[in-house]
Amino acid sequence: MKIFIGSDHAGVDLKSAVIKHYEGKFEFEDKGTFSHDSVDYPDFAHAVAESVLNNADSLGILICGTGNGMAITANKHAGIRAALCWAPEIAALAKQHNNANIVVLPARFISTENALLTLQAYFDTEFEGGRHQRRIDKINL
Ligand code: RB5
Fold first, then answer.
1. Which of 9, 64, 77, 85 does the annotation list as catalytic?
2. Element spanning 63, H or E
3. H or E segment to which residue 48 belongs
4. Which of 64, 72, 110 most suits a substitution to test ligand 1, by most atoms within 8 Å of the C-beta?
5. If exposure means fewest CB atoms within 10 Å of the residue's CB, which of 29, 33, 73, 92 is most exposed?
């Protein structure tokens, strides 16, 4: 599976850890940022959201300090379901119920270990469909 990943300066270290952890398992396209220099999270959220929408069966991962800036921005794109996830159970439900296509991690409020467990829970879970698909179909304005 192709994964588009992006972060701002607050999430750049966790981004590297995620890519390293899943190296060889997933194909990553890293949309930046690539240093600790201060940047604007929407630039990376838009880049990842557009790539996910243009590539069937791909997934996005976005990381900033709280996760909120990335989630708010990515969810401006119709068809993006970006879920802020800080625990494995939240991530599993983001897949099972919301079929999230972008997982957002709050780098300043989650350990690397918990972030990796959270992502793994997302990967290990299937979308349930049924009534959840009906609800997803009502999201776009
Ligand atoms: C950057 O300082 C911080 O505002 C950003 O990483 C994020 O938390 C925004 O939502």
1. 64
2. strand 59-64
3. helix 41-54
4. 64
5. 29
